[in-house]
Amino acid sequence: MWGYNNPLNLLAFGFFMFSLICILGLALYIYVASALMTIAKKLNHPTPWLAWIPFANIALILQLGEFHWAWVFLLLIPFVGWLAIYIMSIISFWKIYLSRNYPGWLSLIPLFVFIPMLGALAVVAHLIILGLVAWREAAEVERFMSPKKATNKKSSKVKKK
User: pTM score, two decimals?
Assistant: First the structure.
């Protein structure tokens, strides 16, 4: 009854996987939209709520990177337009990261998506960096990442006789 030959089991498994993908996709969308909205607020963008609207969120990224919002219409041109938007978004993220006092080279991490063994890791790294840029100040992250220096006042003084 519960073997691989039962079509109802296959249907139930397919429904479960579809539901799981939809829930994960929704969670990912909420995370990215809230991070972009927070970044836009911190950069004093007049309409940060655009982060919640599909295609308008791409225009928001371009605007934060000092491009005109109308470049988003390149998405209507298959492949060439998509590649142009991809490159423009990397440049935009570079400028966004610099304006939030993060190193600009962090925007190059999505380029590793096209390398088979690093693709998923690059996506996760980009999402983590996006969250850090949105909700942490660069000084806090730098303080966390750098090793603590031993500051013992007694050991730093040299005894003179």
Answer: 0.82
Residue 118 located in a structural domain: yes
Would you state the structure tokens that stand for residue 78, as one six-digit string? 């298959």
Query: How many CB atoms within 10 Å of residue 42?
Result: 16
Nearest to 61 by CA among 76, 43, 77, 79: 43
Any domain includes 55: yes
Q: Amino acid letter at 14?
A: G
Q: Within a domain: residue 1?
A: no
Calpha distance 73→90 (Å, rounded): 17
Q: How many structural domains is the chain composed of?
A: 1
Cα dist from 60 to 33, 100, 145, whole Å: 11, 16, 30
Q: Consecutive sets of 10 residues in the chain, 161 residues long: mean pLDDT of each?
A: 72 93 97 98 96 96 96 96 97 96 95 91 96 90 69 49 49
Whether residue 151 lies inside any domain: the answer is: no
